[in-house]
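Recap quiz, item 2
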Amino acid sequence: MAKDVKPTRKNLMAIEDRIELSERGHDTLEQKRDGLIMEFMDILEQAQDVRSELDANYETAQETLNMARAMEGDVAVRGAAAALKEHPEITTQSKNIMGVVVPQIESSRVKKSLDQRGYGLLGSSARIDEAADAYEELLETIILAAEVETAMKKMLTEIETTKRRVNALEFKLLPDLNENKEYIEQKLEEQEREEIFRLKKIKNKKEKEAAEAEAEAEAEEATATASADD
Amino acid sequence: MSQEIAVVGSPDFTTGFRLAGVRKFETVADDDKPEQLDEAVSGVFEDNDVGIVVMHDDDLEHLSRDVRETAETSIEPTLVTLGGSAGASGLRDQIKRAIGIDLMEED
């Protein structure tokens, strides 16, 4: 509210400083927002590619698995699945894109060779191997998708906050500050006018007083000379 | 810090991932999904060793509102959904909100 501030010169100076700072911050944040959106567009494209790859991989993986189950039976497939010893692990590192920390996921032991799988070669058929292969591939794409999508989520949150800040500065803080500044300026001007008026009044009064005193003195002088004449 | 991948879904869905070596999985039979899926998903999301959660897109429908929102917006662990046409549904909404345009429109 504009009326909350005291119309003093000191406050005016403080508000002018704040306006300058806010404007600078607003410009910087605007640039950050635009930069983030540009980075985001790049990632979005990447994400869409990964998504379509993911869907395609999922379909083939499902197909091969269904094939394996149809040919080998559910039990054999489940048995093989339960026998696995090596487990994929992921490690996350972070990367910084314009102040947003995005993860970089690295995986290990996703792709395995036949003898690493642990379900034995004799007991299983090539179809199970194929299904396992397809799912390993799918997992790799999933890891990639997770990385890209996490980055997207983080950047979106950052874009949202930056946008909110820019808008708060542009549509709330700066107008308020400017209103305050104007209010103080007008008040100060009014005070100045009042002061001038007051000075004029005083001057008039003084002049009047001086004139009266002069007239009185003259009158006195006149009476004095008149009495002297007598 | 090394983490693992977790899979949540019907037995059919998780078998394939087990073949690829995924150790953490929650199997919920299709009939029990409305009752049990919520619990399974929240359990997985609370597990600190899990870095990525894989689910089928259709299964998200069975989740209650709260759990679904946590799952969709969670960054660690990240949810990756498979199947379904919408792709990342939560992401799409978020893009619409943050950028102002629907960038993921099918063209």
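Chain A has one domain: 7-178.
Residues 48 and 145 of chain A are 9 Å apart (CA to CA).
End of item.
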